[in-house]
Fold this sequence. Notes:
The protein has 10 helices and 18 strands. Helices cover 26% and strands 26% of the residues. Strands 3, 4, 5, 6, 13, 14 and 15 form a 7-stranded mixed sheet that branches. The protein is globular, with a radius of gyration of 25 Å.
Amino acid sequence: MERAVLALIWIIPAWCWGSGGAAVPAAVTQVIAAQRLPPSAVSFAVIDPDSGRLVLSQNPDTPRSPASTVKVVTTFAALDLLGPSYTWHTRAAFQGDLNEGVLDGDLILQGGGDPYMTLERWWSFARALRAKGLKEINGDIVIDDTAFALPPEDPGEFDGRPNRSYNVLPNALMVNFQSIEFRVVPDAAARRVDIIASPSPGNLSIENHVRFVAGPCGASAARVDFKVDSAGWDQVVFSGALSARCAERSFARVLLHPNTYAFGTFVELWRELGGKFNGKLRVGAAPADAQALLSFDSLTLGEIVRLTNKFSSNLMARHLLLTMGEERLGGPATLEKGAAAMADWSRERGLDLQGMDIDNGSGLSRRTHISVLQMAKVLSAAYRSRYAPEFLASLPLAGVDGTLRSRMKMTPAGAARLKTGHLDGVSGVAGYVTAASGKAYVLVCLVNHARADFGGGEPVHAALVNWILEDL
């Protein structure tokens, strides 16, 4: 993947950032020491977003790997550039003759980059075609994903797990995150183990070699192995043995390829809805003489941003970066256009992101780097922006929801809105904490150290949150 680097000029904003800040409180330094973290591995900044005063900091200008906290930059830029009511469009067109619901020709499905085309919404798309009167397709289904122009990328490059959902790659017609959920269920009455896939497209082959065992659940009687057995990710093999006394297992994997997944699931849903089709898949741009049949709107960007940040969706963040580039510089969408759009936006906004490497916009990268002060300035701009309500509502609430649901549970409800970030050797939070006085502060904390893999970063983040709550 080409590196997408923001090389930005410095513009002095109308209001000035304070250069000072209080001494780091002992409650924070003691936690850092207790976690055996060298001070050089920890960066944080606490800022008053109203005045720009730097209240507290440590290594604020050191470039750090931010992991998923960088999504706050991507999502705010998207809101600011596109507006919360922005929508994507997935279209259907046809080539041939359509008479009384029978299409003697091809149905063309055109992706528009919708980041959240879930299986339920894909069903609604198919249902909308049926509502248009389409009953039978006597040609092929053509998938047009040319709205994105991306270089080949290995989905397993990051951690060697190409079939995990967090590694799924962008595509202009991405359906259901390309995910299949499997349930492995022992059936004592039938003395067998069932494999139930949802969805269950006809172009996915599932071989079930799991043996049923009547004895206790444990050891060799409680092992189910899963293997992807083809380059097209369209054949999977289950093996092992499972006792009737074992609970059912469930997990999800990314399977098929974007075009074959979209095709297979559409055909499955189309037939469930009573539609007829016996053709094949073709991939390519829609012909110039194709006739429009349906335009299906996505969720609004405001809703997409909330889902992206609450649940830290890498795929959705990547789609946002690509969309910004396409809207600003024209199609097709590319990483380079996305980075250029972010660069233009930050210059216009008067934000200092010089040297920041945005890469793919999601934080699932070893190349992305930003300082806590740079990120804190973005968050301060977001706090004062016209879309502050939409942006703040997108961040996980400590102890309540999203990626913070099980963390900082003792924090007063609604007091901390923080995007989290985790990679090997990285732990971070970025967002807002409302002190007992009712005043909100920006907090960004990034820990880059091997101890972060053992939970060393979380106590530091919590100590900073507590300091803001109790002392500001």
